[in-house]
Amino acid sequence: PPELSILSSCSPSQLEGLCSFLQLSTCPEPFLGRFCSWLLALSPDLSYTSAAILAQQLFLRRVLSLTQPPSRHLMAALTSFCSKYSHPFCRVLVAAVLQEPGEGAEQTKLMCELVEECLEPHSVQLVLSQVLEVPLSEKLLPVLQAVLGRQEVLPPELLDLLVLTLCQQAPAFATSLSFAKLVTAMLTVYQSQV
Predict the structure, then answer these.
(1) How does DSSP classify residue 69?
(2) 81 contacts 91 by C-beta, under 8 angstroms
(3) Which residues form a coiled coil (predicted)?
(4) How do residues 8-55 score in pLDDT, each as one tens digit?
(5) pTM to 2 decimal places
(6) Domains along the chain with CATH numbers
(7) Do 12 and 53 form a contact (C-beta atoms < 8 A)?
């Protein structure tokens, strides 16, 4: 709809107010996919800040409250949004999931799925750098495994940080099968650099 062009011209505070007025954070999931397809068609593209605000309003509450796999409507909306605005999406959503205490099994599975299937290579690197900024936990090992599974060429400094983190954390994960798989994958994918 032509009315959506207002999203490109709003200031951040206006956009937050508009999202609140439209109740985007609680809109029905079937509407989310349609709304995201409209966002992709916007011209000019949304600014980074606007995309980050929309990622927060549309997805943050839904993703953090997942207790079972996301519905196909939510997954379609996430995939659609990530296809164009993966960087602001990662900055908002991945950061929030990483800082969430507890197991967060569904959130971890969702992050792995997004890394494996949706994110651009530069966004995969962003996810990796975000994971390496927080203390490593059993919950995060599958996310690192998904990143390695992409077999992306990593910048030397990021690869060095990954190797250093794994070396430092090895004693804490001495009995972890997931950690052993991760180190094996690391040595397989990045053998020459390691």
Answers:
(1) P
(2) no
(3) none
(4) 888 999 999 999 998 988 989 999 989 999 998 888 888 999 999 999
(5) 0.85
(6) 2-152 (1.25.40.480)
(7) yes
